[in-house]
Each structure stands twice: as C-alpha cells, then as structure tokens.
TrEMBL record:
Organism: Actinoplanes philippinensis
Lineage: Bacteria, Bacillati, Actinomycetota, Actinomycetes, Micromonosporales
Name of the protein in its database record: Intracellular septation protein A
Keyword Membrane (UniProt): yes
Pfam families membership: DUF3159
Keywords: Membrane, Transmembrane, Transmembrane helix
Recorded superkingdom: Bacteria
Chain segments annotated as transmembrane: 38-57, 64-81, 101-123, 144-162, 174-192
UniProt keyword Transmembrane present: yes
C-alpha cells in the first residue's frame, strides 16, 4: 500500500490542539497572577488568543478559521464573567467534548464515520471513500479511537470542573490537547492501516468498482 502520509500530516491536528490549549493556559495564568481574578484570567486569555490569531494570519492561515477560534475564546471568557465562576471558562470545552463524542458515535452507527468524512474532504474525494467497503470499515474502526479521546477528556475535566480546580483544568487542557491528539492520530492511523489489506492502494485511492484500482507503487 503506497501511502506515505500519516493522519497527523493530512489533518494537521497537532498544531490545532496546541492553538486550542494556549488561551486556557493564559486564563489559568492570569487568574493566578491577579489574585484569582476572573477578569485577570479573561483578559489574559483574550490577549493570548488575539496574539495567536495575528500570528496565524501572518502565517497565511484562513481568516475564517482564525476568527472562529478567537470568537470561541471570547465567548468562554464572557461566560465566566457573567456567571462569576472561573471554572465556567472551561464550560464550552466540556460541552463540545460531550457533543463531539455523541456525534462521532452517531456517525459510526449511521455508517458515515466522521474520520472518513474529514479525511475524504481533505483529500477532495467527497463521498467516494464510502463506496469502498474496506475503507468504510477502516474509517469506522478508526473513528472509535476518537470517541475514546473525548471520553477520556470528559472523565478528567468533569470532576475538576465540579471541584472548581482552575489551575488543574488549565493544566489538563494542555496535557489532553497536544499529547492526546497526537496519540489519537497515531493510534487511529494504526487502526486504519491494520484494516487495509496489503494490496489496497491507500486512502487517496478508494476502490469503488467504478474504475480499476490503481497499481501500488
């Protein structure tokens, strides 16, 4: 199977995970530095997010994606300021992880595994990958790894959130962002490869029956 890229290379997930964790670090650091002040944490998080957004725009990232990330941080900060509970800065994260776990499970059950949807979109295949039974099965099994990722996060974040452990939440955000995403990408890639026969041409070449399968180089 001629397939040099890994999922990490295709999806660029590690960078996205690092970007998502930095504003949380800013919030935790500002909260501590200003005497457990929610305003201090909120301002610090937004400043970090703005700096990160400017840097990403200068690196050529799409403005829409950058602004969405900045918007999410601003909303998280506003939630914490409105409720007066510092831990509520992480509420959106908890809700998004729960919703993501549910969405990935539903996608697998409906035979539209999100891993296949995402990779297929990145590779410009639209839905061709679904007409390859082998790829469909591989993506379905690989998607379960992503479900486990979200469940792990919830298992760690929910008790910390309930206990109001702000510094621990910020630390966990870092530990369960970059490292966990990297592990998830590596394991799901391993699962996919384990489920593809040696003669399968790879993710870029779904065997749909509409045309002869490309010869592996």
């Amino acid at each position: 199977m001629a397939q040099p890229e890994s999922l990490a290379e295709l999806l660029n997930g590690r960078r996205a995970a690092v970007d998502a964790s930095l504003p949380a670090v800013g919030f935790g650091g500002g909260w501590l530095a200003f005497g457990e002040s929610i305003w201090g944490g909120a301002v610090s998080a937004v400043v970090v997010a703005i700096g990160l957004s400017v840097w990403r725009l200068r690196k050529g990232d799409k403005p829409r994606a950058v602004l969405i990330g900045l918007f999410v941080v601003c909303v998280a900060a506003l939630i914490a300021l409105h409720t007066g509970r510092a831990e509520d800065f992480f509420l959106l994260q908890l809700l998004s992880n729960g919703a993501s776990a549910l969405a990935w499970i539903i996608s697998i059950v409906m035979r539209w595994p999100l891993l296949g949807v995402v990779v297929g979109t990145v590779l410009g295949q639209r839905t061709r990958w679904r007409r390859d039974p082998v790829l469909l099965k591989a993506y379905s099994r690989g998607s379960w790894v992503w479900v486990v990722q979200y469940v792990i996060r919830l298992a760690v974040f929910v008790p910390l959130y309930q206990a109001g452990q702000i510094a621990a939440l910020a630390t966990a955000r870092v530990a369960l962002s970059g490292p966990l995403v990297a592990a998830c990408l590596a394991v799901s890639w391993w699962v996919i490869r384990r489920n593809l026969p040696a003669d399968h041409p790879g993710l870029r070449h779904p065997v749909t029956g509409d045309e002869p399968a490309p010869t592996a180089s």
